[in-house]
Amino acid sequence: MSVRHLNVWYGPDHVLKDICVDIPNNQITTIIGPSGCGKTTLLKSFNRLLDITDSARVEGEVLIDGVNILSPEVDETELRTRMGLLAQRPSPLPMSIFDNVAFGPRVHGTKNRNRLAAIVEANLRIAGLWDEVKDRLSAPAGRLSIGQQQRLCLARALAVEPEILLGDELTSALDPRSTKHIEERLKELKTSYTIVVVTHILRQARRLADYVVFMYGGELIEHGPARAVLEEPRHELTRQYVMGIIS
């Protein structure tokens, strides 16, 4: 995925300013920076969630396999099946655990019950949730703990076989044990997926990241391999941020 001269405005406010970056395949990229610097807006541009914000105006390109996904010719629904999104707070659908994971495959035409059962089990196993829920798949998803709900949402996202996983502060509402579960799953999944995670927690970036994008004031200040950016930053703003001087 490549971002070329991406600019975003909310009304008169210029919130992303000429962003250019290549997101490496089969790695975990973390987007870091202070609150309000444009991290989430950048993430939303990757699956065109900005389209549903009336005041948003977008210029530039986000290229996937050489195709500009911001083009009006690109089918938004098809695009979002290629990009699984995990939000800050888990949002299970108001249905059973089984039906949450089976929802996407059903929408895309899978009706055979045995096939759906295999998809549900496979993706709950990948999300590290199968052993905890296998005897209560018909129970409402809303009865799960918050940490389990986030892993369920991960399984639901994976069930439609996306190419890219996006996460927006996906562990901020979780306890340390659940956070560890999610981080372990992401590290396992990067061999099969390109993963982009917004985080405000530098410790998490250090644990997870192969590649880091640092933003400040709507601008991309520095990006590169995680060790280089987090331990030997080239830009003074980056150095101040990773040292905790600015936040």
SSE layout and pairings?
Blueprint: E1 2-10, E2 13-22, E3 28-32, H1 39-45, E4 56-64, E5 67-68, H2 76-81, E6 83-86, H3 97-107, H4 113-126, H5 130-133, H6 146-158, E7 164-168, H7 176-189, E8 194-198, H8 202-208, E9 211-216, E10 219-225, H9 226-231, H10 236-242
Parallel strand pairs: 3-8, 3-9, 6-7, 7-8
Antiparallel strand pairs: 1-2, 1-4, 4-5, 9-10
Morphology: globular
The average pLDDT is 95
Low-confidence stretches: none
Number of strands: 10
Number of domain modules: 2
Specify the number of helices: 10
**Could you give the order of the helices and strands?**
EEEHEEHEHHHHEHEHEEHH
Output the structural class.
alpha/beta
Q: Oligomeric form of this entry?
A: single chain
Task: Briefly note the CATH topology name of the largest domain.
Answer: Rossmann fold
Give the CATH class of the largest domain. Alpha Beta
Q: What features would you describe in this structure?
A:
By secondary structure, this protein is of the alpha/beta class. It has two domains: 1-82 and 164-247, P-loop containing nucleotide triphosphate hydrolases (Rossmann fold, 3-Layer(aba) Sandwich), CATH 3.40.50; 92-161, no CATH class. It is 36% helix and 25% strand. It has helices at 39-45, 76-81, 97-107, 113-126, 130-133, 146-158, 176-189, 202-208, 226-231, 236-242; strands at 2-10, 13-22, 28-32, 56-64, 67-68, 83-86, 164-168, 194-198, 211-216, 219-225. A six-stranded mixed β-sheet has the order 6-7-8-3-9-10, with helices on both faces. Strand 1 and strand 2 (13-22) form a beta hairpin. Helix 3 (97-107) crosses helix 4 (113-126), helix 3 runs parallel beside helix 6 (146-158) and helix 6 runs parallel beside helix 7. The chain is globular, with a radius of gyration of 18 Å. The model has no long low-confidence stretch (mean pLDDT 95).
